[in-house]
């Protein structure tokens, strides 16, 4: 059973951060609850979203491990499918311009509503499975230990929850959102290029 080298974990943390920072329904969720209820509901929405992300990451890690051992050809096909999905996300972000999740409107909200919706948005987005297949296929190996798999899942959860909590804290200051909205086209372009680059990295094969 193998463990994960620190250098490989840094690569994992980087790609998880890239995924968390991608504009989409999760960011829109945190924006809505932060703008509608303030800092606390926004943070709760972000942290509860991370629980759903952790569930999908757990399913993906164990599923990929089994596929690598039993069906390597199928694993390769699924990995390429995940890479194609990343490329599609990248092209979509490049074409988004100034539109997107940064235009989310405020809605009246409570912490309980934020917690419920955070989990539901994550679990109701099966595309997360494709996203994690593309990302985690670079890190899962047939002889990976349970501890190493747990590290992967916890890393995905902590980075996702930490990022959205920071978003909620930042947006609780009224000057931050207008600044981001004015630069949303650059955010979309940078995100799109990073996702396309990650798709190419996935096609190239596992990291060392």
TrEMBL record:
Record has Transit peptide as a keyword: no
- A GO molecular function held by the record: amino acid transmembrane transporter activity
Q: Which GO terms describe its cellular component?
A: plasma membrane
What residues form the membrane-spanning segments? Answer: 44-69, 119-140, 146-166, 186-204
Matching InterPro entries: LeuE-type
Indicate the principal place this protein occupies in or around the cell. Answer: membrane
Q: Where in the cell is it found?
A: Cell membrane
Q: Which UniProt keywords apply?
A: Cell membrane, Membrane, Transmembrane, Transmembrane helix
Instruction: Indicate whether Iron-sulfur appears among the record's keywords.
Output: no
Membrane topology classification? Multi-pass membrane protein
* Name of this chain's protein: Threonine/homoserine/homoserine lactone efflux protein
Where does this protein come from, organism-wise? Halomonas campaniensis
